[in-house]
Structures are given as C-alpha cells and as structure tokens.
Amino acid sequence: MTTTGPATVQAPPPPPSQHRRVWTIAAVGALLLALGGAVAIGVAPQTDTRPPAGSPWELAGLTALDLSATHGPNVVVRGVTREPLGDAGAQARYGRRLAKLAWRNIPTRLDTLTFDVAEHGGPHAVHGLWTRDQLLAAFGERHAGLDAGDGPGRPPQIDGPYRHRTATTTSDGTTLVTELLTSTARRYLGYSGPITPTTNPPQTCVGGKPGTARAELIFSLEVPDQAESLLPGIEDLWIGLGLDLAGGDLDSGMPTVGATLPPAAGLGHIAAFTDPDHPHTLHLAGSSGCLLL
Predict the structure, then answer these.
(1) Could you give the C-alpha distances from 286 to 125, 178, 257, in angstroms and in order?
(2) Does 17 score more than 50 pLDDT?
(3) What is the DSSP letter of 225?
C-alpha cells in the first residue's frame, strides 16, 4: 500500500522548536553510519543494519534500516519492520508513522520522502511518497536545525511559571490541570469557543496513602488544521512553561505529546493527542498526583 500526505491541507504556523539543544555534526555522522547509510552522496551504503537500541526507529518496530539511497533533500527510507502490515488500515497507520519518523529525526533538508518497508517474515509492505508541504501540513514544524544537519537533541528543563506551582488536594489538582490545559487551548491555539472538560470522580491511588485520590479530566477541541500538526508547538509551549516532557512520543512517530511537573508540584501527567480517524479533533487530558480528598 502506498501512503501519501493530504496535499490540499494547508499547514498551520506553530512556533518553531526553539528550546532544543542540537547534536554535533560528528554525532550526527556517527548516528547515520549506525543507521545503515548516509544522507550525503559518496559515502558507501551499509544495508540491512539494525537501528540503534532505543532509537525512535527501533521503538517503531524497525529491525533493519537503510538510508543509503538518499540524494540531497530527496530522502529514501528502506527497511524491515516487526509490526504486522496485514490489512490496509495497519499499512496506512504505519506509513504515516514512518513519514513522521523521517520528518522528526533525519538531519538533512527534506523536500521529498520515499519509503519502502517490508513486514518481517510476511508478504506485506508499505510504500509512501510525501512532499515537504504534505509533511509540514500533517506533522507541523521540524526540530530547529534538522534542515541544516543537526539532530533533534533532547529537550531542556526550563524554569517556567508552572514549575513552582503546587497542589495539595484533589480540588487544587483539578484547578491546576484545568488551568494549564485551558491555557494551552487559549494561548497556543487561539481557541475562543467554550471549553467544557469532562471530569472523572476522584480515582483511588493504588498503593497511595489513605484519604488520597487522583483527579482526572479530559476535553476535546475541533480545530481547522490537522490536529497532529499542532503537537510540536504544544510541546514547545509546555517546555517553556516549565514542564518536563514525558518521553519522546513525537520523535517515535506517535500522535501524542505528554509532560509532567516535579512530583512535589502535585501534577501527575498531562497529554495532547489525536486520533487518525478524526484528524481535526485535538484531545487534551490531565491527571493530578495522589492528593488529599
């Protein structure tokens, strides 16, 4: 199955990833060699090479990866995955994830992306052709520096305004989570419509102290752009507010970003995520830590 990006959708202008540290050129070169190829012409290709353990490519199920057919900004990804590709839906979802992996991780100018990835031990494969405009519309801005050859690096910790906020009761926790997620919708998305979160009853904390519980809430927004393209900007916003990113879901090709505050703050976890079946719906959810009832 061949997957492509939706060419008719215009990309939103999320803020650039300005809080990222970048890899050195030497580190990028070492990574590319480890990945099994090079993005520059004239470097001998290495095929059928396993991605580094813990890399976004390995986390996405790739057991072999070859970038050696890349020529300048025309990136070519070939490989083998352990993920099942037995039906059209699985192929479409995995093709989209591969496109996002390349967009978020390969340190070179990317004008076109072609991929051809086979199912390990099976007869199925996924093929894709995406343009830069399609990738931008679907997934938002790239990490700063990727086009110039710098890797994405790791997000820093910033002493933002929410880093010193605390909550001691589930009521406080609900207020804090609601404020943070509503601020995300208003400040970043410019959302002016009503926001009505669904608040679950306080959830008992497994192994927690008696008299404590966890507050949970979620709300969903309909947005004109592809919701997944908004996630990099939300990630940058949360870094700037003092939150710690919870893992590298975006860099692993997943349609979600999560963050936490230090445990002492009383905020457990917040997340923004999308559903491929509803591309214009953005979900914002959060939970407090185990707080007093």
Answers:
(1) 37, 8, 12
(2) no
(3) S
